[in-house]
Amino acid sequence: MQLPAVAVSQSPEDKFREYLASRSRAQRFTDQQRDMVRFIFSQHHHFDADQLIDDMKKAGFGVSRATVYRTLAKLVDAGLLRRLELGPRMYYEHDYGYPQHEHLQCGQCGKMIEFQSPAIEAAIEEVCRQHQFHATGHTFIIRGACAECNRARVLKRRLDLI
């Protein structure tokens, strides 16, 4: 499930270009970085670095593994992407232009379901207030089984009883 995007004042490309220029040692915005930003923000799904490299190569882009890893780290630092640690792998998702949300992750098929919960947001704000803590973000992932995998598990259990 995908949530609707939120309005932003700059394109992801312009925001990343601004981030690179504002660093203590300004960095150049390369063609590979531009292609990556455009490719990542042309679709919305959770991805890891290897998937991104494969998908970009299939789409005809020439990207080096080192550039992808360095650029992903910079995109996170710039506030454009969010890192999600899911088991042994690091996944990424849009942060810029996308509302704060939480995740349900199916341990069987890997499906990610995004959701928003005012009650969870209120609880986080209350805990931070109680501890005089200034939060800059959070990641909340509930692991379990999605409806399809649950149905398959129940059906298999019934067949095992026969």
Entry keywords:
162 residues, alpha+beta, Dna Ligase, domain 1, 2 domains, three-stranded antiparallel sheet, 6 strands
Describe it.
The chain has 162 residues and is of the alpha+beta class. The chain folds into 2 domains: 8-98, Orthogonal Bundle (Arc Repressor Mutant, subunit A), CATH 1.10.10; 99-162, Dna Ligase, domain 1, CATH 3.30.1490. 45% of the residues lie in helices and 17% in strands. It contains 6 helices and 6 strands, in the order ααβααββββαβα. It has helices at residues 12-22, 31-41, 49-58, 65-77, 118-130, 147-161; strands at residues 47-48, 81-86, 89-94, 102-106, 112-115, 141-144. It has a 3-stranded antiparallel beta sheet with strand order 1-3-2. It has a 3-stranded mixed beta sheet with strand order 5-4-6, with no helix packed on it. Strand 2 and strand 3 (89-94) form a beta hairpin. Helix 2 packs across helix 4 (65-77) and helix 3 packs across helix 4 (65-77). The protein is globular and about 65 Å long. 12% of the residues are buried. The model has no long low-confidence stretch (mean pLDDT 89).
